[in-house]
Design goal:
CATH class of the largest domain: Alpha Beta
Mean pLDDT: 95
Distance between the termini: 13 Å
CATH architecture of the largest domain: 3-Layer(aba) Sandwich
Largest sheet: 5 strands, parallel
CATH topology of the largest domain: Rossmann fold
Number of domains: 2
Shape: globular
Radius of gyration: 19 Å
Low-confidence stretches: none
Order of helices and strands: HEHEHHEHEHEHEHEHEHHEHH
Structural class: alpha/beta
Number of strands: 9
């Protein structure tokens, strides 16, 4: 097991599964309001180049509920990669804190932070991937299905950092992962190749949402233009026409299908309001589980599980 959590496949299958079951235990303790404070006397530094309500609230609340103190550093506090060398930030924060989480644009910045930090570094999101989200997602699926057997995930939309994280998970856990995206918006080709060559999962990149959705256990979508791409939104709306997740698309999946979205969502753009509010939607369980999955990841990294 690595010192850091930068990509979901940094960990082997057994470690990933153990972390999911640890998340289940932590969630039960939270629900029972148990006085469980393994992080008492510890600090978590949270560096944000990309703002996010959910990432901040889930990490800060979760670490606090487990007895620790989380410090929020806004984009203007750090200006990572601009005001100060990243390797200097990593080494200074290692003298102050017990663990470091960063939500950044440039993936190489998280790699450099981890290289020079003496403390565990968690990838809270980069433009390349989002491993904490995918751990919350697979935990949510496990909760709702009871198992991860014969799992088909249909992702509809942009081949973005969420897709890259699913592809990297597919190199550790067996699944049929199908990404339906418009031409020109496919995921990173080396990441697709890596997942295929792992030989554990079936990987498909298609351009028809109906093909992807057929007999799916999960239909997943995300915004069509992420932070930093908002200037492309109107063009993307044209290119993504037909990729909105609708009730009709859900009807092609299994009757027990779960609809997932990492949020925030643009209702009536990538997904209809009807689907968001449907019985298939597990988006709020998924959002809550970010906190429990992240707490489990931190406990694993601190060897406190």
């Amino acid at each position: 097991m690595t010192k850091d959590f930068l990509h979901v496949d940094d960990w082997d299958k057994d470690t990933i599964l153990a972390t999911l079951y640890l998340a289940k235990k932590i969630k039960a303790k939270f629900r029972a309001r148990e006085n469980y404070q393994p992080f008492a006397g510890m600090t978590l530094a949270m560096i944000f180049a990309k703002p996010s309500a959910r990432t901040r609230v889930s990490f800060e609340t979760g670490f606090s509920r487990l007895g620790g103190h989380a410090l929020y550093l806004s984009p203007s506090d750090i200006e990572i990669g601009k005001r100060e060398a990243i390797k200097d930030i990593a080494r200074v924060f290692s003298r102050y804190n017990d663990i470091l989480m960063a939500r950044l644009f440039d993936h190489q910045h998280i790699i450099e932070l981890a290289r020079y930090a003496d403390i565990p570094v968690i990838n809270g999101l980069t433009d390349y991937n989002h491993p904490c989200q995918i751990m919350a997602d697979i935990f949510s699926i496990l909760e709702h299905r009871g198992n991860l057997d014969n799992l088909k995930i249909a992702y509809i939309g942009d081949g973005n950092n969420i897709v890259h994280s699913w592809l990297r998970l597919a190199s550790r856990l067996p699944m049929n992962f199908v990404c339906a995206c418009p031409e020109g918006y496919e995921p990173d080709q080396p990441t697709v190749k890596r997942a295929i060559e792992a030989g554990i999962s079936t990987i498909e990149i298609v351009h028809d949402p109906a093909v992807a959705s057929r007999d799916a256990d999960v239909i997943y979508t995300d915004v069509w233009a992420s932070m930093g791409q908002k200037h492309e939104f109107e063009e993307r709306k044209k290119r993504f026409r037909g990729f909105t997740v609708t009730e009709k698309l859900l009807s092609l999946a299994k009757p027990s299908v779960c609809f997932m979205h990492c949020l925030p969502a643009q209702r009536e753009v990538e997904v209809t309001d009807q689907v968001m509010e449907s019985k298939a939607s597990i988006i709020f369980d998924q959002a809550e589980n970010r906190m429990h999955a992240q707490n489990a990841i931190m406990l694993k990294l601190m060897k406190m599980d």
